[in-house]
Design brief:
Oligomer: single chain
Number of strands: 15
Shape: rod-shaped
Strand content: 25-35%
Order of helices and strands: HEHEEEEHEHEHHEEEEEEEHEHH
Strand order of the largest sheet: 1-2-6-7-5-4-3
Radius of gyration: 41 Å
Helix content: 40-55%
Structural class: alpha+beta
């Protein structure tokens, strides 16, 4: 058995999911590449004195275990509003400055010392602090040169959101890729697992219906045209985005419509098949070739189907002839009535 219907489901599922998989793979690859950049990575740092080494290596986003930090007595302002404070750490005969958020300052008092900071060089801030300390100590500012390091451990500059977003995108991409592979494997093993097969539930078991459709398309195929198959018991329309299956026994009314659609440069004629049943079915399918539609209607027709095709075509395509026949019929009826009346008057006069 060729299992034509199973192949259609597998093909459509792959055609639909592959563009999504390519997009997800591309985004994940970009996210992975970005996460490998030092700009979007965080490095562990244990000693403030190694700041220059980290900066030289481009490792400027660091996680630092800070102990012994003291308030420097300066506020960190943003738009003229206090959002944090400067702290300092004395290590290896140097003063290292930290720009921390208010919440981090509170955490320090509670014994929580893990900080995520970005190593920045801000000489104007350093010079301002040196001048203030020099004034307080009543000494020349040159005496403090080199004592305060220009590197600032700045918590406000740490790109935490960017790092988090890139990491989540990467992990999400890996998860989606894994699910895609599992989904494709499931479809290859059983086409009933395809999302496009979910509508077959109305006919009972998906597996049994797919097996029946495979047999119908292989052994009982009556006609194939414009992606449409007619078998003894089913109409199957296979498109890339979806698959339609109609049980012929469910069709009670059948009709054909001709419509004109305005295109960009000229009008386009389409031929529409309508199959319906008040209780359980309403289905429409459009064709570009009238001959194909006529053949499909031919193979669908049964004695119990109400075929409205000819009546609809007559009413729609020949209104002048229909009206002329109607007027002619009314005139003939009128002539008959007048003849009867003349004949009756003649008999009465005799």
């Amino acid at each position: 058995m060729n299992k034509t219907f199973s192949k259609i489901l597998r093909r459509n599922s792959i055609m639909i999911i592959m563009p999504l998989a390519i997009i997800v793979f591309t985004i994940s690859l970009v996210a992975f590449q970005l996460s490998e950049l030092r700009e979007f990575r965080s490095f562990d740092m244990h000693e403030a004195s190694s700041a220059d080494t980290f900066i030289s290596a481009g490792e400027i986003n660091v996680t630092f275990e800070a102990e012994g930090l003291m308030k420097a007595g300066y506020d960190y302002l943003k738009d003229n509003k206090k959002v944090g404070e400067y702290y300092y750490l004395f290590e290896d005969n140097h003063v290292w400055l930290f720009a921390l958020k208010n919440i981090s300052g509170r955490n320090l008092t509670e014994g929580k010392h893990t900080l995520k900071v970005r190593l920045t060089v801000d000489e104007p801030v350093m010079n301002q602090i040196i001048q203030d300390y020099s004034a307080q100590l009543k000494t020349d500012s040159r005496n403090l040169t080199g004592f305060v390091d220009p590197v600032i451990f700045n918590e406000f500059e740490f790109p935490e959101i960017k790092i988090m977003i890139i990491k989540y995108i990467y992990y999400a991409g890996v998860i989606v890729a894994a699910l895609t592979v599992l989904y494709l494997l499931a479809i290859l093993c059983s086409p009933a697992a395809s999302f496009q097969a979910r509508f077959l539930t109305k006919y009972g078991s998906r597996r049994k219906t797919i097996k029946e459709l495979d047999e119908e398309l292989d052994e009982k195929l009556l006609y194939k045209g414009e992606n449409t198959y007619i078998t003894d018991n089913y109409l199957v329309a296979a498109y890339v985005t979806h698959v339609d299956v109609v049980k012929l026994d469910d069709i009670k009314y059948l009709s054909k419509h001709v419509e004109e659609i305005k295109g960009l440069f000229k009008k386009k004629i389409i031929y529409k098949l309508t199959a319906s049943n008040v209780e359980k079915l309403y289905y429409e399918q459009c064709f570009s070739n009238e001959e194909v539609l006529d053949k499909i209607i031919y193979y669908i027709r049964r004695e119990d189907i109400v075929d409205e095709t000819e009546e609809l075509e007559r009413d729609k395509t020949k209104p002048e002839e229909f009206e002329r026949d109607k007027n002619k019929s009314e005139e003939n009826e009128k002539d008959k009535i007048e003849s009867v009346e003349i004949e009756r008057d003649k008999n009465e006069s005799q």
